[in-house]
Amino acid sequence: MLLTAKIFVFAVNGFLRAATGFDIGLSTKCVVIPKEMGMCHNIGYSEMRLPNLMGHTSMAEVILKSTTWQHLVHTDCHSHVRMFLCSLFAPICLDTFIHPCRSMCVAVRDSCALVLLCHGHPWPDSLDCDRFPEDEDMCLASVTKEYKHLHKVLPRAACQTCPAVEEFFTHRGVLEVFCDSNFAVKVKLSKRRTVFDDQEYNIECQVEFITQGSLLPYETQSMIRQWLLINEKCTQRMTPTHRPMVYLLVGNIEEGIILVKQVYHWQRKDSQLTLATQKWRYHKCL
Q1: How buried is 268 (Cβ within 10 angstroms: 0-12 exposed, 13-18 middle, 19+ buried)?
Q2: In which broad location class does this protein mainly occur, judging by the first location in its UniProt entry (predicted)?
């Protein structure tokens, strides 16, 4: 089969396992991936097959059904979640359908099903991993173990009970919490509604301190963004209006999982958090 060069770095990295494919026939057509399907942009190709592998026959149906999954993609619950979903909702326009392998489905499901449950949804029957081919067939497979070792394994955010937002505190009390924590991140949150009446969040992060191993500030910022998207109920509580809100999120990393244990409302009129972060540089924990 002929693969265009850009996608298909997947083949080089071991994503594509060769065997026989499934014939498309004359009942499908190539169409441009619409702008409303943001999760499937910049994935290595710009045209998709319609009907797709989810059985959607119109672009309106594809857009409507796929947008419900975009939030899961934003949580980055698995490194292949976007590839997995786009291979189903926007399959590449080749002369055969390329399904995701069962192993990829299982890997994505095992990482992302808990995120769906956090939002009150079970893993859907339509994505039952048994419907996908084994890795020996022509399909998109998970990255090889050798490739994984080349990448730094970062702590992951998980679904957790929302910490109470502290409104009244002293800088001494905050410093005591800092002493028992791995990180403190200042977060500015704002929200807006999309054309589909969903909530989207703008998240700006500034790392105040990190004490966990070799984590870098940008890695910690990314992990906090992931925590806020996975624990959307907590984020909703912190953004009761469309006015931007500022918080300090403090927590620990335990067994590779990020746990936010304290949330402080950072208000301009209150200098206690500013004082605590300034004194932290010279503070000696007992």
Answers
A1: exposed
A2: secreted
Q: Is the dihedral of CA 63, 67, 73, 74 positive or negative?
A: positive
135 shares a domain with 19: yes
With a cut of 50, list the residues of the chain below it in pLDDT.
1-26, 144-149
Shortest CA distance to 140 belongs to which of 5, 28, 7, 6? Answer: 7
Model pTM score: 0.73
Radius of gyration, alpha carbons of the chain: 22
C-alpha span between 98 and 90 (Å, rounded): 11
Domain boundary among 148, 165, 181: 148
Summarised one tens digit per residue, pLDDT across range 8-57 is: 333 323 333 333 334 444 477 899 999 989 999 998 899 999 999 999 99
- CA–CA separation, 138 and 170 (whole Å): 61
The sign one gets for the Cα dihedral 181, 228, 217, 243 is negative
Summarize pLDDT for 137-156 with one digit per residue, the tens: 788 887 544 444 456 678 88
Instruction: Indicate if 30 and 59 belong to the same structural domain.
Output: yes
Question: What count of other Cβ atoms lies within 10 Å of the Cβ of residue 147?
Answer: 12
Alpha carbon 141 to its chain centroid, in Å, reads 20
> Residues 27, 143: one domain?
yes
Q: In CATH, what number is assigned to the domain containing residue 197?
A: 2.40.50
Cα separation of 89 and 69, whole Å? 10
Whether residue 136 lies inside any domain: the answer is: yes
Is residue 285 domain-resident?
Answer: no
Q: Does residue 105 lie in a domain region? A: yes
Contact status, residue 263 vs residue 166, Cβ threshold 8 Å? yes
Q: How many domains does the chain have?
A: 2
Would you give the distance in Å from CA 58 to the centre of its chain? Answer: 27
Pairing of strands 156-157, 245-254: unpaired
What tokens appear for 255 in the block?
A: 């067994």
